[in-house]
Amino acid sequence: MIILQFLLLEAGPGINVGDIAFQLMSFLILLGIPLAIILMIRVARRKSNNRLDRIEEKLDQLLAEKEPKNKGE
Fold first, then answer.
1. Is residue 1 over pLDDT 70?
2. CB-CB contact of 56 with 42 (8 Å)
3. CB 6 within 8 A of CB 17
4. Are 17 and 7 in contact (CB under 8 A)?
5. pLDDT digit string, tens, across residues 20-68
6. What is the per-residue DSSP string for the chain?
7. 6-44 burial by CB neighbour count: b if 16+ within 10 A, else e?
8. Which of 15, 18, 57, 59 has the most CB atoms at less than 10 Å from its CB?
9. What pLDDT score was predicted for residue 53?
10. First to last CA, the chain
């Protein structure tokens, strides 16, 4: 109730607090969209690197298992 009364008050001549709140929210959304995109790209790259690391470890394991067989023959 207090917040609603605060939004209805005028901050100055011809400027409503509700207008200021709307502009601040719009500004935050405009900043948030590029930040969200950057974070999504970073997460995708990190997942890709983790997947490549697991594949590399598995390949190294398979090569290590195959080496003794070839040396003994």
1. no
2. no
3. yes
4. yes
5. 899 999 999 999 999 999 999 999 888 888 888 889 999 999 998 888 6
6. -HHHHHHHSEEETTEEHHHHHHHHHHHHHHHHHHHHHHHHHHHHHHHHHHHHHHHHHHHHHHHHHHHHHHHH-
7. eeeeeeeeeeeeeeeeeeeeeeeeeeeeeeeeeeeeeee
8. 18
9. 87
10. 85
Six token digits for residue 66: 């195959």
Hey, what are 28's tokens? 């935050």
If one compares 69 and 20, the residue with the highest pLDDT of the two is 20
Residues 18, 7: contact at Cβ < 8 Å? yes
